[in-house]
Specification:
Mean pLDDT: 78
Helix content: over 70%
Shape: extended
Low-confidence stretches: 212-224, 247-251
Number of strands: 0
Number of domains: 3
Structural class: mainly alpha
Radius of gyration: 24 Å
Number of helices: 14
Order of helices and strands: HHHHHHHHHHHHHH
Distance between the termini: 22 Å
Largest sheet: none
Strand content: under 5%
Length: 251
């Protein structure tokens, strides 16, 4: 990563938080890689929590695979309530593409259920009413809670288990690489990448839970309001940079 001034970097990450530039553009500008940039941004949790919180709010960590939703329940809800696939995607904040992909996965596990689902969705698209026979089949299915937990909570618990298992294997005298292989990973580097991911999740969680907003609270900014957030960032860039410099001097 090329040498940069802290204030220049902060100005750029504030622009990243405002979604004026992408992470890829940031990486190219500083001639670095994703991992280095990720570590540099994560370090702001300690050196400048106000700026880091802005980044977390704009770009929260999300596990690629949605494990917080019961997709089978979504399919049942679509059949029973008559909502469209797009309406379901909007309700549960998941893309139509992801929903369709998970439907395909469920189709392989339960072809008969998937066949019924497709009949219902096809009827809905064409404006055709479900037959009494189809309604009887739908009535057999019940669904409970569709939201089964936070995305990051599920991922965090898996990574914590990985960390604990890895540490136990090391304590038993196993080498780092052998311990990684035992856990189904290629090398210790793969383990440490996952532990970095865990660190990011936990730091973001800490920032959000503790609500380190002392500076922002002083001007009562509603960060849920994008317009107010942008106005806050624009008006207070210099103060945010000064905060970082003061934190650096204290350290």
């Amino acid at each position: 990563m090329k040498e940069i001034k802290e204030e220049d970097f902060l100005m750029d990450v504030v622009c990243y938080a405002k979604k004026e530039i992408s992470l890829k553009e940031l990486i190219l500008k500083y001639k670095t890689d994703y991992r280095t940039m990720h570590n540099r941004i994560t370090s702001l949790a300690e050196t400048n929590p106000d700026v880091f919180k802005l980044i977390v709010e704009a770009h929260p960590y999300n596990e690629k695979k949605r494990n917080d939703l019961n997709f089978r329940n979504i399919m049942i809800e679509i059949m029973k309530s008559g909502i469209t696939v797009r309406e379901a995607s909007q309700k549960y904040k998941v893309s139509v593409r992801t929903l369709q992909r998970r439907v395909e996965e469920i189709s392989k596990q339960d072809p008969e259920f998937a066949k019924l689902y497709r009949k219902c969705t096809n009827n809905s698209k064409t404006g055709k009413k479900n037959s009494e026979a189809i309604k009887e089949q739908i009535a057999k299915y019940e669904y409970g809670n569709t939201i089964i937990g936070g995305i990051n909570e599920d991922r965090e618990s898996k990574l914590i288990k990985l960390k604990n298992d890895f540490e136990k294997l090391l304590e038993s005298g196993m080498t780092k690489n052998d311990a990684a292989l035992k856990l189904g990973l290629l090398s210790s580097n793969d383990v440490y990448k996952k532990l970095k991911e865990l660190e990011r999740i936990q730091k973001e969680k800490q920032i959000l839970e503790e609500g380190k907003r002392s500076f922002k609270d002083s001007i009562k900014v509603d960060t849920e309001n994008n317009k107010e957030k942008e106005e806050y960032v624009e008006k207070n860039k210099t103060k945010l940079i000064n905060l970082s410099q003061n934190n650096q001097e204290e350290r």
